[in-house]
């Protein structure tokens, strides 16, 4: 899978290479958003920076996929999920571990990708009690 | 007021199923059938709307048919494209830009084996940059996640989703054009025991992948009254878009059909309770539950219980997807034009064994992309 890096996300991918998950942050109004864009979705401002995500989040939804676009790369069944970061934005990712369900807590992990790149993935946290 | 009203005056289908035809052949079959139904000729068409041919879809079909239309639309919003084209076509006729609009579509995706699980490769898009690296299947993965979230929030069950597929099959058994006509009924258990494709969606929760095409002809209501078939009035249209990248969906259990439906009902001056039959985009069974809720046919989260008890089956209180739907009749990649064809046939009383008794108002709702794009069209008999 060839990864694509758009100019507005160069720093995001560079940080991912170093296993740091960035969230774009508006210096004018403080809004946080993912994916990185050329303007703030709340105030329309263009003075944008980054904050590092804490790595915590919850599963918004998920699916166990039994079909694959490329079985060599994604051997079914594999999981696709949308995770809501504690910082607010959501991203599409995969989740590993037991107890995958909606609203379950997850922690950031990383998966090595081609060209020394890393992809943010998540793992479920052990259930309390 | 009738001077500003627009009507559907012709509808038609191409060959459906596994045709061995080109896109252009299927488009031609559908367009000719709709124009013949309207009592019009290709040379009467001065407005052309189509999608899914190439980047310049309307221009491409105009060239193929030797047309020089005064107005075109190649609006490409997936399955909702044709509902959006009705709205645009109504505006074009009202404003005098053109007089006869042909909306057409054809796909040979089955014969050409052109459908890809992954979806289209568009490397410059956020979807390809941030989501494709996880092995996402588009649109399947998003609909599966919407279903999962609906289960979680509202206790919706696989049995309730399966009822949508079983009801669609029952309608298809009444429609000789349906791909599954003659295939026999399916039960809720059949759906649940079909292979899991992307949890919680099973194979029979997913639409057909076949060839097909359809076309619709619009003109002013005044002119429509001089044509052979009874006019079907366009009472209201609405559209809405929410996202195209999966994780950008604002809410997996509340779709843009809330806004498109509200706009269409407001224009028509009616409410959901006035609708006699509904043709609801059924790319997947979950699409139907979400759309029924968003359009206000039931409350939020109540789609599962709403379809229980055979309510949407032939003879039920809420006739829905009366041609057999994308699940059992035909799904040629972008199914929205065929929703309009069926709505018109029901209003004209031309639906044969599957005819709903004397409907006066039928709603068609198209859904494109990954719950991305929504078009609602409300049609009514000319009284
Ligand atoms: Zn801002």
Describe it.
The complex is a heterodimer of chains A (129) and B (383). Chain A has 129 residues and is mostly beta strands. In chain A, the strands form two sheets. A six-stranded mixed beta sheet of chain A has the order 6-5-4-8-9-7. Chain A has a three-stranded antiparallel beta sheet with strand order 2-1-3. Chain A is built from one helix and nine strands. In chain A, strand 8 (105-112) and strand 9 (118-124) form a beta hairpin. The radius of gyration of chain A is 16 Å and the shape is globular. Chain B is of the alpha/beta class. Chain B folds into two domains: 2-114 and 211-231, Thiolase/Chalcone synthase (Peroxisomal Thiolase, Chain A, domain 1), CATH 3.40.47; 159-203 and 237-381, Peroxisomal Thiolase, Chain A, domain 1. In chain B, the strands form two sheets. A nine-stranded mixed beta sheet of chain B has the order 3-2-4-7-1-8-11-10-9, with helices on both faces. In chain B, strands 5-6 form a two-stranded antiparallel sheet. In chain B, helix 7 packs across helix 11. The model of chain B has no long low-confidence stretch (mean pLDDT 97). Chain A binds chain B through residues 1-6, 9, 34-35, 60-70, 73-74, 77-78, 80-82, 90-94, 101-103, 113, 119, and chain B through 116-118, 123-124, 126, 128-137, 140-141, 144-146, 148-149, 152-153, 195-201, 245-249, 252. The site of zinc ion (ZN) has 8 residues of chain A, from loops.
